[in-house]
Design a protein that fits this description.
Rossmann fold, seven-stranded mixed sheet, globular
Amino acid sequence: MPLFTRRSTMKIHVVLLFTLVLLVFQGCANSFGTKGVEQHVAESVIEVLQKSQRVLWIGAHPDDENSSGGLIARAKDLSGTLFMATLTRGENSDIVWNGLCRGSQIGQARAVLFAQSAAIFRADGYDIGPFVNGPRSLQELDRQCPPGAPFQPWPPTARSDDVIKKWEKDWGKGDPVAYVVALLRRRRPNTVIAMDDYCGVSGHPEHIAVARLLLRAIPLAASPGAYPETGKPWRVEHVIFSAHVIQPVVASNYSKCEGSPPREPIEEVPTLETSRTHGMTYFRVACLVAKTYQNTMLQQGATESQIQAECARAERDAIDAYQRGVRSYPIVEPYRIRSFN
């Protein structure tokens, strides 16, 4: 989830979650806007997942799934079939490691991490899109390797429209919405989990761009006359948007929310229940995913058993905090439901 300059530390220690114990004991309070739904939503997040035979999580970069780690693990339990998709490989990572260059090398390394994440979540399949992270093309990034292109984020003025226009050039096959339509028709999810089209958790324009493409793609995927070459029509019933907002990041000059604050009601979903699929709490599953990214990207050198032990400790601390009344992220994860019935 590449963010912007001056945010590398925040990205790893906040966006990649762990610092879980730090978040817990700081009692990080999240300010969430409320959003009014287009139509009344009577079902809870858990009820929506229970009714779903297939769930798709979609994001912009490998590691974006950390924003909803507990719910993704729960979705596997409740629906039985889980797919994951990232529209880029995260080629323009603000963090580089092991002498790799931004561009194809970092993209390949992050694709491997995304595959490992999907395996931990026990996803039934995953997809990596054809778009390139950041304002430069893959060729522009690769031409500077070695020694490697310096990190160049989207400028502070960039919006999701700029991202979508750039992705159209990356793809070379027209409007990127067609790719998302094809993905929905192939994976056929009843429910999609995503960052929202307002702040996208961190204000990253690529997060918001994915949400906007998804919302455009859903009615098109259900229409027989739209992009018939991408497969048979499919109707998505619900999108579960993360309502988590990393306030220090969004408050910076390097990230922007777009449009009006959401008004849909927020539901807080706990993460400390035990997953029957994974044999541990949803919290610990999310921790294992986040720590796997951290261990590689920060070159921490931890063994698998050390990662397991660290997440077990974080889980115990989270349970203790919950028993003392702490109800902050990631002990609970906030979501909004948008229905397309």
